[in-house]
């Protein structure tokens, strides 16, 4: 199993401490051909114990080291918040789950209107982690009824998926006591027994989940949710079934689950030269991202195109066309 190095963590923390909303410091106008503009750029990531945060810090370092842009990574609540604030201009690049991005570009769910955003590239897949305390007697999502469940941070992609799982299982909102907690607080609640179960959507491995199984593996277990795939697809067609391998988390075993692609999103008003340069950079320097987190190994040209209705930014399409020659 891949372990994030101390140097990588230090780099991420240093970058993220400079993050937050951008204040009148957009990337400069321009960016000809496949060259990035100069200026400052801000990346919306996710919870500090999740993959978005770690990989986002690595991406910010990569951009700062290889272009005229100075990038910072901001800790956020993740997908929904990221895309809402991307569209408003608070961020320049946003990590997001594809189901949330699909909602954003079509004006569904948490989005009142179609947002003018598109993808730099599809990246790795997020695996839905449904983990319960063994003493809670939960064997399926249907068993969430009457239980206290962490559904993730408010306005996160995890919360979107958690609510759709509950709906797909035939439960009403009032059937479940939902706790809208970030991953760190969720893990604490699982350890001390104040919550019965959790939903988390993240790459493999997720540091917070690694911590939970390392310290309290005898008290918790995964739930197989693959049987809800067809119901989930009725809500959004991007969902697929895959396995979390047995060696991902200590003592957890192999489990079938629902996966969702991740995408890097930008506003449509980002100049095409910058779109192109950033997309090429991700693939040209992918080995550097892999050193930050193992999830980057799943970023490939073969899977670079996002699922419909998400479209590639025009500069990104140009970059991929050149890379695939």
From TrEMBL:
Superkingdom of source: Bacteria
Name assigned to this protein: C4-dicarboxylate ABC transporter substrate-binding protein
CDD domains: PBP2_TAXI_TRAP_like_1 (cd13569)
Record InterPro entries: TRAP_TAXI
Organism of derivation: Brevibacterium casei
Listed Pfam families: NMT1_3 (PF16868)
NCBIfam families tied to this protein: TRAP_TAXI
SUPFAM superfamilies registered for this protein in UniProt: Periplasmic binding protein-like II
């Amino acid at each position: 199993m891949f372990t994030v190095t101390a140097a990588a963590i230090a780099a991420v923390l240093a970058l993220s401490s400079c993050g937050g909303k951008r204040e009148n410091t957009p990337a400069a106008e321009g960016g000809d051909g496949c060259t990035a503009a100069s200026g400052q750029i801000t990346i919306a990531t996710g919870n500090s114990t999740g993959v978005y945060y770690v990989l986002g810090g690595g991406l910010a370092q990569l951009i700062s080291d290889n272009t005229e842009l100075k990038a910072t990574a901001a800790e956020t609540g993740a997908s929904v918040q990221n895309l809402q604030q991307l569209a408003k201009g608070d961020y320049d690049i946003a990590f997001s789950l594809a189901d949330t991005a699909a909602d954003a570009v079509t004006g569904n769910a948490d989005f009142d209107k179609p947002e003018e955003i598109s993808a730099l590239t599809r990246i790795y897949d997020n695996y839905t982690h449904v983990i319960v305390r063994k003493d809670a007697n939960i064997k399926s999502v249907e068993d969430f009824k009457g239980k206290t469940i962490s559904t993730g941070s408010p306005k996160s992609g995890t919360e979107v998926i958690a609510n759709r799982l509950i709906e797909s299982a035939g439960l009403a909102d009032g059937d479940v006591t939902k706790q809208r907690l970030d991953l760190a607080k969720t893990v604490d609640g699982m350890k001390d027994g104040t919550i019965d179960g959790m939903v988390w959507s993240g790459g493999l491995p997720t540091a917070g989940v690694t911590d939970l199984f390392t310290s309290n593996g005898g008290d918790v277990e995964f739930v197989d949710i693959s049987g809800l795939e067809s119901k989930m697809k009725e809500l959004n067609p991007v969902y697929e079934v895959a396995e979390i391998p047995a060696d991902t988390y200590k003592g957890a075993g192999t489990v079938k689950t629902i996966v969702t692609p991740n995408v890097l999103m930008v506003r449509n008003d980002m100049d095409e030269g910058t779109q192109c340069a950033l997309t090429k950079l991700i693939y040209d320097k992918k080995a550097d991202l892999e050193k930050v987190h193992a999830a980057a190994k799943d970023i490939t040209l073969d899977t670079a195109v996002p699922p419909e209705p998400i479209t590639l930014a025009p500069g990104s399409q140009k970059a991929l066309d050149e890379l695939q020659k």
